[in-house]
Design brief:
Length: 303
């Protein structure tokens, strides 16, 4: 069966993620150890025990990537499937690169840990955030942002009627009544201090490119770019696309629509967020893998 591989982004983290895999798979244990060695962080403590670090972006990003990578590896070792492409949402694009063979696990963990640090550094002297807007057409949200004279930008095109805006937190709060005047069904400020996928992250693009130059393989399997909603499979292309992914909106729904006809089903590794979004975009089924039970179910559905 030809499947599209999906990888969730930041916001999908939870305490206990990966624990069932760890307790039931030697492969998962080895991957936890490798990730912990890569950045000298105890991933069992980070992901299994109550703590504040799990929501700090430099730790959130490698934790989510590790969870997704384990789900993918356990799936891959139990079934033969026809790879079509990998698609990640925001941070998930780096998990997708791992699945496509562009990075090994240690490299991927170090890369996204540093990516998180660079994002934090860009906001050391300002407070950013992100805001979900439901019930408005993309064009209306774009117009409100553009005409507001505030530091706010469309950041994630998730599905029709669901878009995420990024910017300065104070400006996002000012934007809320303007969006409600236009008929937004719901406007919700997210609990985060970094505004992803907007020009406020420009300072992080050059150092991220230098890291990518160091870590990426020259060629890999097809990955769909958040920036263009098109496939790429070379280091040269990645070096152009991944740094500006920080400052450009995530074209998620466009990516699904561009390539849904190439696959029979989607499998989401390490989350259920994209499954929920996909219900509004495509008639193709999305199968989530978050623990051993859902792994077995996914394997039986793809065979």
């Amino acid at each position: 069966m030809k499947i599209g591989l999906l990888f969730p982004g930041q916001g999908s983290q939870f305490i206990g993620m990966g624990k069932d895999f760890y307790e039931n798979s030697n492969k998962a244990k080895e991957m936890f150890e490798e990730a912990s060695d890569a950045i000298k962080v105890d991933f069992k403590k980070l992901m299994f025990e109550e703590n504040k670090d799990i929501n700090k972006t430099e730790f959130t990003q490698p934790a989510i990537l590790l969870f997704s990578a384990i789900a993918y590896e356990l799936f891959k070792e139990n079934i033969d499937f026809e790879y079509s492409y990998s698609l990640g949402h925001s941070l998930g694009e780096f998990s997708a690169l791992y699945s496509a063979g562009a990075l090994n696990l240690s490299e991927a963990i170090r890369l996204v840990n540093n990516r998180g640090k660079l994002m934090n550094e860009a906001f050391k002297d300002k407070v950013g955030s992100m805001m979900v807007v439901l019930g408005l057409d993309d064009e209306v949200v774009e117009e409100v942002c553009k005409n507001s004279n505030l530091q706010v930008w469309p950041a994630n095109y998730n599905s029709d009627g669901q878009i995420v805006i990024a910017g300065i937190k104070e400006d996002l709060e000012k934007l809320e009544p303007l969006l409600k005047e236009k008929g937004a069904k719901r406007v919700m400020l997210l609990n985060m201090s970094v505004a992803s996928h907007c020009p406020l992250l420009e300072s992080a693009t050059k150092p991220l490119r230098e890291l990518l130059e160091e870590y990426l393989k020259d060629e890999f399997l097809d990955v769909v770019s958040n920036v263009t909603a098109k496939k790429y499979n070379t280091k040269k292309e990645a070096l152009e696309l991944l740094p500006i992914q920080l400052t450009k909106p995530v074209l998620y729904k466009q990516s699904i629509k561009n390539y849904e006809d190439e696959v029979e089903k989607f499998v989401e590794f390490g989350g259920k967020v994209l499954m929920g979004i996909n219900r509004k975009i495509t008639k193709k089924k999305t199968i989530p893998i978050v623990d051993m039970k859902s792994l077995e179910k996914a394997i039986s559905e793809v065979k």
